[in-house]
Amino acid sequence: MNNDVRPDLNILTAWSKGYTGLGVVLSVLDDGLERDHPDLSANYDPLASYDFNSNDPDPQPRYNVWDENRHGTRCAGEVAAAANNRLCGVGVAYNAKIGGVRMLDGPITDIVEAQSLSFHPQHIHIYSASWGPEDDGKTVDGPGILALEAFYKGIANGRGGLGSLFVWASGNGGIHS
C-alpha cells in the first residue's frame, strides 16, 4: 500500500480520491467469517452473510484443532478491515460493508455454489472467492450448470440490473507449472 511494491496497486492514490469502499457491499464466499473479529465487526453486514453448510444466517467458521477455517476471515480483512482501530492493518476498501458466506466447510456441490453465488443479489455488489477446483496449472474445471446459471442471473439482474460483480483468485495450480 505504500507504493514500494511492484506492481503497485495504487491504493493510496485511490484513497486520496475518496475511494474507500463507502456504499459498497462485498461478500466473501469461503469457509466462514468471524463476524465479531475486531478488524471486521464495525463493517460486518448480516444481510450479506449466510451459512449454506449449516443452513442458518450465522457465517461463523467451525473451529477445530487445526484452525483450518480461517481463510474467509483473512480474505475479508484484506478487503474491509476497519481503519484507525489500533489493531492489525487496514482493508483496501476499509469503509465497505463485508459479509461472509460459509460454503466450503462441507460438500461443495453445484447447488451450494449456485446458492452462494446468488445470495441476495440486490444487496450484495461484489462476490469474492479465493478458491476453486483442483487444477494442474494448465487446465481448470468450469462451474456446474446451476452455478453457471447463477453467474448469468447475477450479471443480468444483480444490483438492480447493473450486474453483480464476481471476483475470483487465480488457481492454486501454478505451483505445478
From TrEMBL:
GO BP, sorted A to Z: peptide hormone processing
Entry keywords, A to Z: Hydrolase, Protease, Serine protease
PROSITE patterns: SUBTILASE, SUBTILASE_HIS
Family named by the database record: Belongs to the peptidase S8 family.
Any one GO cellular component localisation term in the record: trans-Golgi network
Entry-linked Gene3D superfamilies: Peptidase S8/S53 domain
InterPro entries recorded: Kexin/furin (IPR034182), Peptidase_S8/S53_dom (IPR000209), Peptidase_S8/S53_dom_sf (IPR036852), Peptidase_S8_His-AS (IPR022398), Peptidase_S8_subtilisin-rel (IPR015500)
A single GO molecular function term of this UniProt record: serine-type endopeptidase activity
CDD domains xrefs: Peptidases_S8_Protein_convertases_Kexins_Furin-like
Name of the protein this chain belongs to: Proprotein convertase subtilisin/kexin type 4
Keyword Protease on entry: yes
Domain Peptidase S8/S53: 23-173
Entry superkingdom: Eukaryota
Organism: Chelydra serpentina
